[in-house]
Amino acid sequence: MFKVLTAEGDLPPKAIVIMYGWLGSQMKHIEKYARLYVQRNCTVVYGNAHSAAIMFRAESELTKVVLESVTEAAKILRNLESQETPVIMHYFSNGGAFLAERFEQMVVNMNDEASSKLSDSSYADLIYVATRLKEFGFEIADSAPAYLHTSSGLKAIDTSVSNVFIRTIFRSIFGLSVFVKDTVLKPCNEETTRETFWKNVVNSTLCKKQAFIYSATDVLTDHEKIDELIQERKSRGILITAKKLDESEHVLHLRNHPEIYNELIGEVIESVSSSSS
């Protein structure tokens, strides 16, 4: 489910923000971040996917979530008089990164099973929003993307699933999934989920301007992989803003470093405002 927070004031919003939460996040938690944009005269469409869809990268379910966010964003954009209102995509951990990945794959690969089932109106909304994002917008990754180490996947389950019984089930299914992929797919030279996801991340052209805020002490997101990703994307001419923190917990950078976080949001909004004007 997605909610909308409307920009404060009488002026048109500086940007439309699509915000994807992390694994296990609640709407009230995501809303705290959404309000950072609302206070700066942006309208925010925010929500997340359910835990099982994220943990197992359920393509059909992720597609539904992306379409819901895109439909809301496109409706807002079409009601505005400006033809250049930018779109910002802000996502957290792999709960958000998987949705950003799915968003892009739906745009670039209409031949996959889920994308081929899109209605004409859904596809039109998707392209409309994707164009605003790529041409005028900004992509912000908080504690993301996280390389799919098995250990970090298990830690993510332990961190986000409070119910012991459900957590045990998820850990067992996740472990079995990893075992099958490593013992069946690899010997057959089939690409694993981990390899597919990271290849898509490395090759992403979702947006011309991107920002990463991450930490050297994050136990879930491998900061060295983010370092490598930033350098690779810079080599392709993508404009990168990087805020690497010496000490901060996973998806808690706003709480641990509010000044730096607010400064980043301000820089991003200023950048898209100047680009669209």
Automatic annotation (TrEMBL):
It is a single-pass membrane protein. Keywords: Membrane, Nucleus, Transmembrane, Transmembrane helix. Its main location: membrane. One of its GO terms (cellular component) is nuclear membrane. It is found in: Endomembrane system; Nucleus membrane. It comes from the Eukaryota. Pfam families: DUF829. InterPro entries: DUF829_TMEM53. The keyword Metal-binding does not apply. This is Uncharacterized protein.
